[in-house]
Each structure stands twice: as C-alpha cells, then as structure tokens.
Amino acid sequence: MKVLVTGGAGYIGTHLCVELLENGYEIVVIDNFSTSTLEGLRRVREITGKSFHVYYVNLLDKKNLKKVFSLHQIDSVIHLAGYKSVRESTSDPMKYYRNNIEGTMTLCEVMQEFNVTSLVFSSSATVYAPVEKYEAISEKHPLGPTNPYGHTKRLIEEMLRDIFDSNTDWCIRILRYFNPVGAHKSGLIGENPKGIPANLFPYLSKVVVGKLPALFIYGDDYPTPDGTGIRDYIHVTDLAKGHLYALHNLSSSSGVNVYNLGTGKGYSVFEMLREFESVTGKIIPYLIAPRRKGDVAFSFADVSKAKEELGWEATRGIDSMCHDAWKWQRNNPNGYELTRIKPLKKEVMSYDWL
Ligand SMILES: NC(=O)c1ccc[n+]([C@@H]2O[C@H](COP(=O)([O-])OP(=O)(O)OC[C@H]3O[C@@H](n4cnc5c(N)ncnc54)[C@H](O)[C@@H]3O)[C@@H](O)[C@H]2O)c1
To answer: Among 28, 84, 107, which residue has the most ligand 1 atoms within 8 Å of its CB, making it the best to mutate?
Structure first.
C-alpha cells in the first residue's frame, strides 16, 4: 500500500514515517520545509534502513502536486502539512487561512482528480470549546475554537464533511490530537522548533540545557489541585501509531469519522516539571506569569471511541515522554540545525536518494 504523507518532514510527520515504513507501507513524502528540514527525513531512513521518495512541493502549488500524483499510484493520503502556532496565528491569521485551508482544498481537488478518496487528516483538540468542568472531552463536545489556528482546523473539518456529502466514495478519518510530546526512542528524531519554543516540552528541554533561563508558567491560580493548567500529553510515537489504525479503518467504511488521540489522563504543568526534573536530575527554574488569554484550566481526552472503533490506545506514560524528549535534546542540543541540508530551488525537487 502506498501512502502519501504531506508535511512528512515535520515533528509528527517524521515519527509517522518511521511507523509506516516499519509496518511495511511504501511512502511518498511531500513537504516545502517551511518549518522543517530534510535532515529529519534522512534520519527516518537511518532508523528504518528503508528508502522512500521525498518531493519538495508546496501544497498550494497544484501543478506540481499533480505531478507527484501522476508519478505514483497513491492509495491513501495522511495530511499533516500546515502551520500550527496558536500565537503566530493570532498575529498573522491570513497566513494560517491561506496555508492551512487553501493547502487542504488544493490537496482534495487533486486527490479527487486522481480518484484517491482515502484521507486521514491531522486536526487538533483546539477545535473544542473550552470545558467548564473537570471532565474528559469526547468527540461530541461542542466545537468552539478560540484562535485563528483552531478556526482553520474547524473549517477544514467542515469542508471535509461537505466533500463527502458531494461524493460518498470519500473515506475520511479526522484525528484530533491532544498534546503530542516526546521523541523517537532512538534519540535521532524529535521536536525541532525554530526560535523560542511555544510548547512545554521543547521549552523545558532548553531550560535544562541552559539555553533559556527559566520556564514561564502561565497562571498558578487555576481551579486545579496545584493551580497550574492540566493537559493530556501523548507520546508522539503513540500518536503516530494511531494513524496506522486510522489508515486500516479507512477500508471498513466510507464517510467521515472523528477520533480523539490522547491518553485520557491529564497532568499539570508542575507534575510535568517534576517528572522532567527527576528524569534529567536537574533543578528547573521557573517563574509564574499571568494567565494567557484563551488558555483553559484543563483539557484531557475521552479516548473510548478510538479504543472501541480503531482498536488503538496510547501505552506510553509521562516517564517515557520525558525520558525520550530528554534523550533527543541531549543528543541534539541544536536540533537538526548543524546538519541542515538546504533544499534546492527546483520546481518539483525529488530526493530519490532517500
Ligand atoms: N504538534 C502539535 O502540538 C499538534 C497538535 C495538534 C495538531 N497538530 C497538527 O499536526 C500537523 C503536524 O504538526 P507538527 O507538530 O508535525 O508540525 P511541524 O511544523 O513540525 O510539521 C508540519 C510540516 O508541514 C510542512 N508544511 C507546512 N505548510 C506546507 C505547505 N503549504 N506545503 C507543504 N508542506 C507544508 C512543514 O514544512 C512541516 O514539515 C499539523 O497539521 C498540526 O496542525 C499538531
């Protein structure tokens, strides 16, 4: 089975490529390396010992996207490509609407043209309306994103439903990720944000290695046991494996099905900080800052639907999340930066050497 992975060079994409290759799938990756580097994919090859095709294509570039579809008989698409920073989306919403929505529209048009109607889409828990009381969020929870990034994900979900209504051949699985963290157990691939990290784990790692002075904890007066926000952190390898179950499920029926991917357990910022301290053996300095607009007290998934219908559940705990994140950081203090390979500027650049 041949799977096209959009955004395969990114944090989740590289981990997904490893799982796909190790489970016998053939893969084709397209990416424009806007937030990633080719080095991550080179390491995917190093981990798996398997070759695959990589195309340097922007999803909005229909002509070149069509070239990729004409070169390969694609069975299914896993669509991860997109921008994901809540903060940046608030300051530059148009960049997010253009890339995330137009990119998905172009992809779906090309898929339909080539009769490829199997799609797994990366959505996010940010599509949910903030929860009022301490309870797990099921897929039936009302939607109500509070930032432009979340709006783009919600609009794409609606667009995918409309696409299915117009052509019932489509098999679509929407995966709403909670908080992916950690890294591959090899320590070769991991999260590689540009600039100051927006997410807790890369930030914690940078504080531990002294690249940042202290962790900012936004709010310690939430109605949670220790006052800090509670989130559902999921190991990126568990998350990646969830896609394989969704892929398998595509063949069971057409239609649009939505699944939460989380562990179902919430941990506070303080709990994660203490776990990180115990794994690294270092004291992590922190500062309490005011709450951030749009942040909620708690968010954790009801994962029963994914368990019942996909047969998938996360198995890795916060110890291995912290351990693997730390191994990645320790082995790669500068991320992929030192070994960055610049993609050549060509129309459709194929890295067949991978
Ligand atoms: N990491 C998270 O915390 C998280 C949480 C929920 C949902 N998601 C979603 O998961 C997906 C993957 O996230 P990630 O953490 O791996 O992010 P990432 O930034 O590491 O990876 C995204 C990849 O998409 C590529 N890309 C972006 N726009 C493109 C375009 N127009 N054409 C081709 N390639 C393009 C980037 O170069 C990058 O390689 C995203 O859709 C994101 O919204 C991520």
So the answer is: 84
User: Does 149 qualify as catalytic in the annotation?
Assistant: yes
* Order of all β-strands in the sheet with 76-79: 255-261, 171-177, 118-124, 76-79, 2-6, 26-31, 53-56, 349-350
Residue that the structure tokens 């099921």 belong to: 138
From 56, 96, 149, 267, the catalytic residue: 149
At 216, is the secondary structure helix, strand, or coil?
strand
CATH code: domain of residue 314: 3.40.50.720
86 lines ligand 1 (CB under 6 A): no
Q: How does pLDDT run along the chain (354 residues), one tens digit per residue?
A: 999 999 999 999 999 999 999 999 999 999 999 999 999 999 999 999 999 999 999 999 999 999 999 999 999 999 999 999 998 999 999 999 999 999 999 999 999 999 999 999 999 999 999 998 899 999 999 999 999 999 999 999 999 999 999 999 999 999 999 999 999 999 999 998 877 888 898 899 989 988 899 999 999 999 999 999 999 999 999 999 999 999 999 988 889 999 999 999 999 999 999 999 999 999 999 999 999 887 889 999 999 999 999 999 999 999 999 999 999 999 998 889 755 555 555 555 566 554
Range of the domain at 344: 2-350
Q: Are 85 and 198 in contact (CB under 8 A)?
A: yes
Q: Determine the distance separating the centroid of ligand 1 and the alpha carbon of 8, expressed in angstroms.
A: 8
Q: Where are the beta strands (DSSP E) in the chain?
A: 2-6, 26-31, 53-56, 76-79, 118-124, 171-177, 179-181, 215-218, 230-231, 233-235, 255-261, 267-268, 286-289, 298-299, 349-350
Question: Is ligand 1 within 6 A of the CB of residue 124?
Answer: yes
Integer CA distances (angstroms), 234 to 129, 312, 313, 323, in order: 20, 13, 10, 13
> Is 127 close to ligand 1, i.e. is its CB under 6 Å away?
no
Domain count, the chain: 1
